[in-house]
Design goal:
Elements lengths: L1 E3 L8 E5 L11 E2 L23 E5 L7 E2 L2
Parallel strand pairs: 1-4, 2-3, 2-4
Antiparallel strand pairs: 2-5
Length: about 70
């Protein structure tokens, strides 16, 4: 379960959307799939942050993607 955090500072993971699955090979580099059979993982997005396992924030800069320490 994930929560989409509107503020980058409070997110556990910064995510960059890749257009090609071959380039989505590190933490935070995701390539969304239209077909569920081609997905490596399925996420449930919740509107309640207290129910989420972690929070993500979508970034427009590829080099910022990854887990926060």
């Amino acid at each position: 379960m994930v929560y989409i955090e509107p503020e980058q500072a409070f997110a556990d993971l910064l995510v960059f959307n890749e257009t090609n699955k071959l380039f989505a090979d590190k933490a935070g580099l995701w390539c969304p799939s239209e077909n569920r059979e081609f997905a490596d993982y399925t996420l449930f997005v919740t509107a309640d942050r207290s129910r989420a396992d972690f929070a993500i924030h979508y970034t427009k800069v590829r080099s910022f993607a990854g887990c926060k320490e």
